[in-house]
């Protein structure tokens, strides 16, 4: 039971939409795939040349040359689109479908010339494997599964069409490509499934490693790495929608005394206590991030005035929920915080400016006695 539940959770995670860090990495991976595709497409031009020099038929050489030119043209198109990072959300699926379908098209054209070549051409068939394995660079399990299933479906349909077309077994025997057998084609289908499974496992492992790098281990909140990848996209979206985006830097007041008086384990529990209170008040358009031991950031899709009211209400709520150290004679501790808020576009349109301005106001809040929220310069 536990094993089946674990498998279901892994599959759900693999097929789920990646988080922002993975999407950003995937966008870089898509660009890398596009560049690799350009190189591979250029190398494909050598295959018809090699075929001609080694005594291959003129017709097969021309088919191979036409296919290579076709792939090269589209490789340039995909490269230009991939350079516009994350602008086209469908791009990874479209390019994966192109890589798989281009292989099927070439095999189909070969079938029109010589039926055994369509099913026993190892060089062209291996392009299916390349198309599936390249999806690992996109860090999106959905693309891997999509490419693998598409390859299985298209190659299966190609097999069905070829076997339905022939009128005698002799038509599937070739001196160049050997005999096409049902068993051999089933083995190729199984290999496609195996490569898809292995690639999906690689993607899953990559996702887990990236998730760990973008998640705080103690609180399971997003961390600074997540913020660095997510914030630019939030700013872009706010600018496109004509909305404001506010960033609050939050620092717990005199937090070290809990570690000094009650120990570090109590300090960890106090952090989790603070996070539980903050999470209980979080709205859907707010993102809480842990930056350091007692430092947090709260990103809000709100103008600066509304953001100030929001953070100040959270400050009051936290003060009303003291933390119980549960150690010795130490009484429950009232935890407060100081915060500085910066908002786009009034304080800047990039992350560095917002962080700098919010940090200045956080320091101002500390100088003025702590336990307060400042959203404007004095």
How much helicity do the residues have? 55-70%
Report the sheet with the most strands, covering strand number, pairing sense and barrel closure. Answer: 5 strands, mixed
Low-confidence stretches: none
What integer value in Å does the Rg equal? 29 Å
Structural class: alpha+beta
What portion of the residues fall into strands of 2 or more residues? Answer: 5-15%
How many distinct domains? 2
Termini Cα gap: 61 Å
What is the overall pLDDT average? 84
Strand-and-helix sequence, N→C?
A: HHHHHHHHEEHHEHHEEHEHE
Count the strands?
Answer: 7
Physical arrangement of strands within the biggest beta sheet: 4-5-3-6-7
The count of helical stretches stands at 14
Tell me the overall shape.
elongated
Summarize the structure.
This protein has 378 residues and is α+β, with helices and mostly antiparallel strands. The protein folds into two domains: 212 residues, no CATH class; 151 residues, Reverse transcriptase/Diguanylate cyclase domain (Alpha-Beta Plaits), CATH 3.30.70.
Walkthrough of the structure:
Strands 4-5-3-6-7 form a five-stranded mixed sheet, sandwiched between helices. It has a two-stranded antiparallel sheet with strand order 1-2. The model has no long low-confidence stretch (mean pLDDT 84). Helix 2 packs antiparallel against helix 4 and helix 4 (58-82) runs antiparallel to helix 5. The chain is of the alpha+beta class. The protein has helices at 2-15, 20-44, 46-53, 58-82, 91-113, 115-120, 122-134, 141-165, 182-213, 224-241, 256-262, 264-280, 304-319, 351-367; strands spanning 173-174, 178-179, 245-252, 286-290, 295-300, 337-344, 373-374. It folds into two domains: 2-213, no CATH class; 224-374, 2-Layer Sandwich (Alpha-Beta Plaits). Helix 14 (351-367) links the parallel strand 6 (337-344) and strand 7.
């Amino acid at each position: 039971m536990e094993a089946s539940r674990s498998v279901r959770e892994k599959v759900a995670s693999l097929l789920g939409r990646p988080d922002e860090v993975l999407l950003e990495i995937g966008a870089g991976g898509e660009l890398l795939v596009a560049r690799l595709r350009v190189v591979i497409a250029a190398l494909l031009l050598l295959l018809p040349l090699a075929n001609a020099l080694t005594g291959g038929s003129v017709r097969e050489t021309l088919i191979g040359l036409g296919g290579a030119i076709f792939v090269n043209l589209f490789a340039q198109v995909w490269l230009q689109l991939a350079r516009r990072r994350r602008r086209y959300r469908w791009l990874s699926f479209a390019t994966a479908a192109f890589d798989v379908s281009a292989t099927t098209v070439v095999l189909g054209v070969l079938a029109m010339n010589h039926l055994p070549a369509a099913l026993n051409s190892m060089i062209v068939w291996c392009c299916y494997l390349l198309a599936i394995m390249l999806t690992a660079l996109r860090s999106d399990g959905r693309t891997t599964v999509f490419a693998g299933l598409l390859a299985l479906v298209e190659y299966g349909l190609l097999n069905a069409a070829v076997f339905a077309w022939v009128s005698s077994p002799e038509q599937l025997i070739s001196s160049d490509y050997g005999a096409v057998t049902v068993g051999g084609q089933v083995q190729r289908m199984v290999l496609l499934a195996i490569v898809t499974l292995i690639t999906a496992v690689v993607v899953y492992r990559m996702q887990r490693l990236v998730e760990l790098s973008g998640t705080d281990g103690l609180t399971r909140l997003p961390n600074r790495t997540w913020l660095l990848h997510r914030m630019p996209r939030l700013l872009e979206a706010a600018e496109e929608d004509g909305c404001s985006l506010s960033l609050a830097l939050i620092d717990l007041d005199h937090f070290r005394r809990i570690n000094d008086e009650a120990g570090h384990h109590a300090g960890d529990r106090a952090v989790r206590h603070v996070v539980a209170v903050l999470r209980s008040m979080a709205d859907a358009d707010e993102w809480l991030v842990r930056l350091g031991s007692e430092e947090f950031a709260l990103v809000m899709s709100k103008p600066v005035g509304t953001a100030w009211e929001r953070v100040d209400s959270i400050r009051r709520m936290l003060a009303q929920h003291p933390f119980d150290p549960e150690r010795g004679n130490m009484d429950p501790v009232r935890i407060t915080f100081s915060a500085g808020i910066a908002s786009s576009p009034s304080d800047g349109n990039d992350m560095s400016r917002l962080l700098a301005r919010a940090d200045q106001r956080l320091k101002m809040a500390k100088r003025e006695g702590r336990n307060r929220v400042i959203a404007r310069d004095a």
